[in-house]
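Handoff note, outgoing to incoming analyst
You'll be picking up this chain. Sequence as last confirmed:
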Amino acid sequence: MAPSIQLMPQLLDAREGSFPEAVLILAKTGYIDSIMLQNTFIHIQSIGAITEQRLWESGLRDWDAFTDAISIPLSGKRKYLLQKGIDESRQHLYQNKPVYFSKCLHANQSWRFFPEFRNSTVYLDIETTGLDRHYHSITTITLYGGHEIKTYVYGQNLEDFIDEIYKYKMIVTYNGKSFDIPFIESYFNIKLNHAQIDLRYVLYSLGYRGGLKGIERQLGTDRGNLRDVDGFFAVLLWQEYQRTGNQKALDTLLAYNIQDTVTLENLLVTAYNMKIGQTPFYNTHNIEIPIPPVNLLRADLETVDRIKNRFIYPENY
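Most recent structure output, in case you need it:
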């Protein structure tokens, strides 16, 4: 299943290459518009949000600006820690290791390192038979790496997910820290040591609460014929497929799973730009909203209506 846009072959090759080369390609193609991570200091020991703001105001706008010639409002010890943190940050950036920044930054600040590692990022969402990872099973998984949508289905190709996920260094989810990632690790008995951006925390810090669909509506996104499908309904679709073999039920489930996944890129870029608007870099660091890939699967409304009627969904569901 292919989306409507493809990344340049050089960019795909850069995922396996050195990070400086990848960044150069990204910058030349316009795929990233900013290097916000190198303007960031709050991941460094002894530097909080207020101190970071003071550093920016003193002229220390990025890591490279830290020289003996610049006067900054820090004690000698804190200057030493700042220099040490910048050196460590440069090393991990150029070694293409986003997990370092994922561990150092609070979850609601993880948006800061997104552009630098966008070429090794995958968007992920799972559907399950229930909420208990020790009792229930994964039914479908969708991965979207920015250029191709891949789906995995229980009883068909679910195990193939394991090889694919380790091709990436960073995972973007919504509520994945609490649900998707622990569920996957328990189900497959694996450890996902990737850097993570959980949009639940980023969007919460911007004032957006609730589930993924609700936040989409707040931001003006309409899911069309998938608007009547939610997580609980996804369980019913899987049960319908298992009980009857109705391929349209599975296609509807996959369409929902795909939509939950590909929307993450748009939400992340939107949230990133909102966050940038709160910094001194609002004129230079915005990212263009991506064109979403084409979801070739559609909800089968007859199947949806039949399941809704069977379970007597409220009229305004």
